[in-house]
Specification:
alpha+beta; 10 strands; 2 domains; Endonuclease I-creI; 4-stranded antiparallel β-sheet; 217 residues; single chain; 8 helices
Length: 217
Amino acid sequence: MMVIPREVKNRSKVNSWSKSVRKLQNSLILDSIQKQVLVGTLLGDACLAPNVYGKNFRLELSQSAKQKAYLDWKAKIFHNWCLSQPHFNKKTKSWRIKTLSHPELTTYHSIFYRDGKKVIPKSINQIFCSTLGLAVWFMDDGTKGPRYGYTLNSQNFSQTDNEILVKLLQSSFGIKQVSLHRDKKYQRIYIGGRSRLKFENLIRPHIIPTMLYKLHS
């Protein structure tokens, strides 16, 4: 991780840092692990935000203070894409980090966003089929559900998008007992107790220690 000072008063140093940043951006390519984590967290808490010029997008990650270890884990995975360490936002009382903006992230934005809102592409099964990505989605948005099942808090997606995700869990991961349960106004994905062990066996190898409390066993 190349740390850029917040204030660089000397103009020659500013130009030097700018060249270094551009050189770093040109060298960046998402590796396999980064792609899996990226897609998993886009299904969950993460967002892709435009840079100041609105040309390319960057990945923005945030977690509550008690989940800083989880943010640190993500920051380590994307370490070569970040110019600074996670910082604490006093207003939101959360830890945050963002990557450099980059054309490759802009491509993911075109896949996962429509009119500024996050959506599920119909081709999701082609880019989301790893147990690591599934575990990241669960660590972001998963909770223990009733009857020893699990809930994925997918209520920010439309019903159509949720139906795509249900089919994905069934076809790509072999999770048979999965359905949509209405929660007041919205629907969430529920993985039933009969598929609990199957689901746990898929994600457990990737769950970081501070997130094990989310599992039933």
